[in-house]
Design goal:
The structure is a single chain. The chain is of the alpha+beta class. It has a single domain (2-120), classed as 60s Ribosomal Protein L30, Chain: A (2-Layer Sandwich). Helices cover 23% and strands 31% of the residues. Strands 1-2-3-6-4-5 form a six-stranded mixed beta sheet, with helices on one face. The radius of gyration is 14 Å and the shape is globular. The mean pLDDT is 96. InterPro entries: RidA (IPR006056), RutC-like_sf (IPR035959), YjgF/YER057c/UK114 (IPR006175). Belongs to the RutC family. GO terms for molecular function: deaminase activity.
């Protein structure tokens, strides 16, 4: 059985997908972007907004960042790796989740970064 998770505190999906799906005790959060900040050139601001959006979605499912077990980061440029780590790391002061970070040719709406997570309650 699955439950669709939605919060108005995070951007609505821009396609035929849900913000997140809760299946049993596992939450699958769709990739989040910071569309409103994508052209600002401030990768740290984008990453912070994305992490805040993820936090709102986690809260809607009764979870928080400590429940995240896996994350995926997709970057437009690997040159932003250090800056992303600085912002991302602040949300996981200890026991960070498993993660991969990859550079991709293009992201939705031409943003610079997208992050998805899996959390377990």
């Amino acid at each position: 059985m699955k439950q669709i998770i939605f919060t108005e505190k995070a951007p609505a999906a821009i396609g035929p997908y849900s913000q997140a799906v809760l299946a049993g005790n596992t939450l699958y959060v769709s990739g989040q972007i910071a569309l409103e900040l994508a052209t600002s050139g401030d990768i740290k601001a984008e990453a912070k907004k994305i992490m805040e959006n993820i936090g709102h979605i986690l809260a809607a499912a009764g979870m928080d960042y400590t429940n995240i077990v896996k994350s995926s980061i997709f970057l437009k440029s690997m040159d932003d790796f250090v800056a992303i780590n600085e912002v991302y790391g602040a949300y996981f002061p200890s026991d960070p989740p498993a993660r991969e970070t990859v550079q991709v040719a293009r992201l939705p709406k031409d943003v610079n970064v997208e992050i998805s997570v899996i959390a377990v309650n």
